[in-house]
Amino acid sequence: MTSLEDEFGIVGGGRRHSRAPGEGVAQEALLRGEVELAIGAVLDGDPAYLFDKVDALARDATGLLYVADSGSRTVRVFDHRGKHVVSIGGRGEGPGEFRSSLLCGLAFDPDGRLWVNQAFSFEIFRVGPGSVGYVESFVVRDPGTRALCGNPMFAGPTGITVPRRGPSNRGAKDEHVQVTESGEVWGRVPNVHSAPDFGVWEWPVMVIRSPTLGTNPGAFPPPFAARVLVAHAPDGGFAQVFSPVYDIRVHGPDGTQKARVQSDRLGPLVTEGEMREGYEELANMRDVLRSGGPLELLEYTEYRIPERKPVIDRMWYDDDGRLWVCFWPAEADTMRQAHVYDADGAFLHEAEWPRGIAIWLGGLSGDVAVGVRKVEFDVEQVVRLRFLPQPAPDPSSKP
C-alpha cells in the first residue's frame, strides 16, 4: 500500500503535529461568531443597500467595509455603523469602471491602495476620507493564465498573489502566481494537487461540444464531492488537503512542506433527504445540458453520492495569516464549525458561527469577520460578526 505521502506527491519532510486539534487546549478555546451589524436586505429604497451578487469583501485599517457586488459592478464602502459612504466603479470600460461581470477579489497593498480583481484584469484605487481616486488598471500578460480568482486575496510590496485556474482537476488550482501592477507574472509556486484514488468519490465526467471551443471533456462539482482544496496565505505559502481526509499539508512560499496536521474526524452522514435532493440536482443539471442549448452533451458518466460527506468543506487563510479549516455541516446543524491554525500549522482554537453566513470572502482579521447571508426572497445581506470566547462548561452541572 502506498503512503499518503506518495499518494499526495509530497517530497521532503515537514513538521507533523502530534497533538490532535483541541487536545491540551482549554475548553474556553471555542470562539463563537455573533452578528453585530447587518447591511442590506431591503427590496426597495436606497439602491446602495441592495446587493445583487456579492463575491468579495474587505476591511481597511480604519474599519471601513468594502463590498464587491458583481451584479451592479460596484465596490461599495460602508462605515462601522453600516452607513454607505461611497461607491467605486460601475459598468463600463473607462478608467475606474468595471467591464467584467465578476469582481472576485479585494485586497489592500502596503501603500493602502485597493486592488479589485476582475479575473483577467485588475483595477487599483486610492481611497481617502470621503474620496476615491482611480490609479490604474492592467491586464495580466501571461498566455498560460486562464483566470485569477480566489478569496481572500492578498497584496504585498511586489504585487498581488492569487490562484491560477488551470484545466479541470477536481477543484484544485494549478498554482498561485505573483503579479506586478504592470501585469507581469514574476513568480509562480506550483500546488501539489494529486490525490488518492477517488473511487466512489469520482466526479461525473461529461464530454461537451461547443460552437466556439469544439469538443472537450470536463467535469462539474456534484453534491458532496471530494475535492483537493488549496488555501493561499498572505506570505505566498499555501495549505492543501483532500477533503474526505483530515490530513492537511502546510507549505511555505517556496513550496516546501513545513507542517502536517491530522485528525480522525469524519464527515457527517448523508441523510435520505439530502441524497434525494442530490440526485434531483444531478438530473436537472443533465437535463439542462441535453436541452439543445449552445452546449451539446455527448457523453455523461453517472455519479454515486457517497454515504458520508467529506469532512472538510472549505479552507482559507485570513488577513492575519491564520488557516481556517471549515467542516461540512450535518443536515440538522445550525452552526458552522472550523479549526483555526497559525501560519506554522499549530492549533489555536475552534470557531463556530451561524450556518447561513459565508465568512470566507475576505475581511477576516482579529476577532472580527464579515460575511454574506441570504434572507427573505434570497436577498443578500452583508453582516459583521465578532468572535467571542465561550466559557468552559461547569462540571458540577453535568448529570
Compose a concise summary of this entry:
The protein is mainly beta. The protein has 2 helices and 27 strands. It has helices at residues 4-8, 272-289, and strands at 15-16, 30-40, 54-59, 65-69, 74-78, 84-89, 105-108, 113-117, 121-128, 131-139, 154-156, 159-164, 175-179, 185-190, 205-210, 214-219, 228-232, 238-242, 247-251, 257-262, 296-300, 312-317, 323-327, 335-341, 347-354, 368-374, 380-389.
List keywords for this structure.
27 strands; mainly beta; 399 residues; disordered N terminus; Neuraminidase; seven-stranded mixed sheet; five-stranded mixed sheet
Low-confidence runs of at least 5 consecutive residues: 1-20, 22-28, 167-172
CATH class identity: Mainly Beta
Percent of residues in beta strands? 35-45%
Order of helices and strands: HEEEEEEEEEEEEEEEEEEEEHEEEEEEE
Major beta sheet, specifics?
7 strands, mixed
Broad shape = globular
Overall strand count: 27
Taken together, the total number of domains comes to 1
Distance between the termini: 46 Å
Number of helices: 2
Superfamily at the CATH H level? TolB, C-terminal domain
| Helix-strand makeup class | mainly beta
